Fold these 2 entries.
Entry 1:
Amino acid sequence: MHVLHVVGARPNFMKVAPVYKALAARPQFTQTLVHTGQHYDPSLSDIFFDQLSIPRPDVCLDVGSGSHAVQTANVMLRFEQTMKEKNPDVVLVYGDINSTVAATLVAAKEGVCVCHVEAGLRSRDRSMPEELNRLVTDQLADLLFTPSPEADINLINEGIDKSKIHYVGNVMIDTALQLAEKATMPKVEGLNGEFALLTMHRPSNVDDPQVLQQLMNKIVQLSEQLEVVFPVHPRTKSRLEAIGFQDQHTGLHLIDPIGYLECLALQRCAKIVMTDSGGLQEETTAFGVPCLTIRENTERPVTISEGTNTLVGTDTDLLEREFLKVLRGEGKVGRVPDKWDGKASDRIADTLLAEIAVPSHKRAAA
Ligand code: UD1
């Protein structure tokens, strides 16, 4: 079975890594890896390929940045050509980025089986580009691999046939467990002892100067009680420059984007994680570290009901209250959700073998 994987941005890379490995361990599969180039900076892309031992992509589409329409359309235009050249049996798409929905549209129209890894997540907030990407991808996908039971319920409620849905668990956690031992703390100049980790890049937090300013004021204040390490995403960097934010605060450490192994180490060692990332909400739950999510909603509610996650939105007073609660030792402990056990990718590989019939003329040619 010829499987073509499509990835494009940072959060895709830790999802494809264990799936690629699981398929490589089974002789029935051949694989092609396509990188759309949505993320192109080495600090957001190459370092992840190296650290996660993902082979170099077979095809790079080099779409780069642009408006949503431009980026999505460029992936579609270029990926259509790749589909014709590679002629895969199955296309695997990951997560909820623009590249995910673009590749899904092309493959579905070519009549090729599309499988969505991390299907069924819903924030119910259609102002998030990722929510629109999820809705469209899941409607068009032929097989939907879900990380948690409520994702199955979301899909069934949207009319998706049960037979297409496979609750396999969380592939992000496969990677986190595989690489936890290799996690390495980055050098953070001036950091002494305990700290909180902050990551923030969502348009809802960083694109409105007033919201960003209020959040940064509160973070600076909190960093006087517990030092804060803040790896800054390129989008956030440009927005901080636009509001004239100066890094002159002794407890707050702004650093360049970090690799996967550094991010794992920072999460595991942090006393608190504050984030708007989907992946960090899940990884902190797996590691039992309290997480304060700077969003009004989450498409990963299992991290709240079972894990260590608390939603604080952009309410900076609530952020402070929850932060102080953790400092008093009253942070959430949580438990690791079912099937976040490091074996989700194996379940995906086995399901592909069980569910997908490769046409006999292709079997003969292989
Ligand atoms: C994208 C995903 C988001 C994911 C995030 C992880 C969508 C809609 N959004 O958001 O779901 O959580 O990636 O980082 O697909 N830029 C660089 N270097 C790069 C890439 C981007 O400097 O390699 C800058 C560009 O100025 C760009 C901005 O960052 O305009 C935002 O990049 P973009 O890919 O549009 O979205 P992200 O915010 O990264």
Entry 2:
Amino acid sequence: MFIVAMSTALFSFGQFTLPPLPYGYDALEPYFDKQTMEIHHDKHHDAYVKNLNKEVSANIALTGKSIEEICKNISKYNVATRNNGGGHYNHSMFWTILAPKSTELKGVLLDDINKTYGSFDNFKNQFSDTAKSRFGSGWAWLIVGEDGQLKITSTANQDNPLMDIAKVKGTPILCLDVWEHAYYLKYQNKRVDYIGAFWSIVNWSEVSNRYAAAKGK
Ligand code: MN
């Protein structure tokens, strides 16, 4: 019995693992509520990881690949890999660019946002509009495009701008999940209110670090 239980437990480990939330489930209250964070991380993100691992065990070409490599070559893989691989990458990033107390944006990224969008408020308005107008499920992104410029874009479902099938490609530095599962318990149909709340909990120091890393490539 013990051996069977052990091997079952070992078998459940796959190439990809659910990263723990970097803060408590209730840490983003009152903006993102505790119950939504629990379900979003422990159920939705966990399912993407489990289903991605199923694809890995069925396709030797995925073995040993990082999630970034898989996304960048997503046209080579099946739809389940695209949906669950994207789901894993997107949510792993999303948790890290949020923080219980929004940090202040300053430095090079603020300067470049001001240069590109005229002002920080203009940038926030454009990003919010993009998130608001994504029809159905998807994500809004701020990326460093292949030309090195900041760009706001959105993707459907669990696609992301790393993917070779993306219309606008680049390295994501900020993202917002606009699937209904991300906000419906607290905000119901009011996606605009959810987007407004998001700005109070952005981890700008993490976004700035991602910007520096993307520019350094
Ligand atoms: Mn989600």
